[in-house]
Every structure is written in structure tokens, then in C-alpha cells.
Fold:
Amino acid sequence: MHSAGWLDSVVFHCGSKFGDDPAFKDGLTQICSSLPEIGVSTAVFGGGKAGLMGVSALESHRAGVTVHGITLPFFAAAQGEEDPLVKSVQRVFSMADRKKAMRDSSKASFTVGGGNGSLEEKFEWLNSRNGIIKPVVSLNVNGFDDGLKTYVEALIDGGYVDHGFLQRIHFESSPEAFVERAKALNAQAPLIEKDSCAEHVDLGRYIKDYPNAVLVYPGPPEVAESIMERLVIYDLCNIPGVELRDAQENNGKWDVQGDLMYLPERVLKPIVFVSEGGHFDGLRQQFGAMHDNGFVAADRKRFVRFADYADEAEDMARELEGEHFIRPEDVALKHSEAERVPDSSMS
Structure:
């Protein structure tokens, strides 16, 4: 066991699919086996068995680390019931509650692969203010997160964040480098936040709803986080036992609360990123990597589009008005039995 430091608990943001490249699972397994060496005594995860999320729980348990799950009730049903190896599972009411509970119980986010949900969680972690900087450490398997790295650089170049933002996220190309980075972070004192509260962002300045499209203009990272929240609902909208309602019943906000999902007009509108000046080119690359590596269902690809100019995006929005409005019953289920970690491997 590594000497105790401040980094005694981490949350894994890995996604509920395995990905097509075994390097994701292999790298995650190596990181989990090294948790005691890093100084981590508690591993927090999403509470289900599916994909890399289930692997993070299994391998952390095998390493002798306490495993704590945080989930919504319908997540457990969709992703596989919790295994007895999990020390405790906390069931929360809403997506916001889930993210806050993960943040409050962890000192850092360890990320490996993942789809829309994992990317949204990275943004939420990067945008949060906790008194200390709780870093994101990414295993950048074969350049998987290069797009995210490019997007962070665009945020700095555009003046939306300062260079200190780079202290919040670290990209490592191998499990060995990842572990060394985590050990180094644990060996130094935690970095204190310069600002105790995040500035309020008027999302309406950057996100515009059209009848059958949502246009997203360059802005601070909170804009990307908000849009990713919406794409997560697109992913989960047809899970059995969940009722989809119009967001007007929730003060116009999309969210998941209990077994209710709130979405504007109950329509899955395509998202059009307006990448003026190349602002969203990194996200374009990141979405491509997520699809190419099997972390996003094939039929979800139609929900994300990019335009280089505002005029082009507005033309897209007008064209989409004449197309079929996509509803939950029009998309495939997110999960299959093959994506779950088998019970026999969880013993």
C-alpha cells in the first residue's frame, strides 16, 4: 500500500459498454489493480454491471479496495443488478443528485473510454467547484481522447477558460503513465480553487431550439456539458419502466428524476454544433472516436451534426423541419445482455 495521501477515493467514469478494442478493458484492469499502490482505498462507480463500469467494480474489489455504487433505480434494472461484492449502493432521485453524490464521495475522476454519458460526466467534473481541484485523469487509449484534448485547447484559445484549466485534466497514453500521474497527484498537496463558485452561464446565449434541431454556438465548457446531458437522455429515453414527459413540466429543463425523464416536446432533436473558427472541431473528433470504438449505439450517430458556419447550421435546421421528428420509440435500446459483466466473473 502506498503511503496515505489526499487522493484516497476516486470515481470511475468508464461507460456501460466495453468498446471494440480490448485495450480499454485491459488498461482499466491494470489501473484498478494499482489502486492500493496509488493510495486509493475507495472506488466509486455507476452501480451496475454493464461494460467497463462493471469491470471497474470487479477489478477494484479484486485489488482489495472498497467499492461503492451510486445509481438511479432504473439504471440498475437496465445495466444489471448490483453484485454482492459491492460494499454499498446508494440510490438517488435524479441525475443531478447522482453527479453530486459522486463528486462529494471522490477526490478525482479516473476515465477510460466511454460514450455520451462518460463525456458528460467529464465536463461536469471539469466545471464543478469543490474548494480543491479534483482532477480528471484519462487513459487516452490509442488517442481516444485526443478530440477532447483539442477541444480543451480551443476553450483556452477562445478565452472561455484560462490556462489553469489544464490543471483539471490529465491525458496519459498508457496504464503505467496513468498510475504514475495518479501517484504524483497524491504525493503533492491538493490545488486550491481560485474561485469558490463557478460563474453563472446564460445557456440561452449559446443554445437555440428550432422546431426539429438544436443549434449550439461557441461558448464556455458549461455549454458542452448541458448538451451532453441532453444526449444522455436520448441514450436512455426508452429504457423499460421510464416515462418520458415534456420538459415544460419541469420548468423547461431536461433532467431525469426518479422514473421520469423530461425532454422538450418529447422529441429527440438533432444537435448541430456551430464550429465557427474550429471551436467544436475537437468535439467532432471525439464523437467520431466514441462511435468508431463502439461506445455509442449506431443509431445515435444521427443526433450529432456539425456546421462550420452559422448560416450553414441554420440551413440544416430549416431542412430538418421537413424531416421525421424522432421520438423514443424510434430508437433502439441502449443495452443488451452481452454488454453485462457475467455473474460468474464477479465472484
Notes: Residues 335-347 have pLDDT under 50 and may be disordered. Residues 203-330 form one domain. DSSP finds eleven helices and 14 strands in the chain. The radius of gyration is 19 Å.
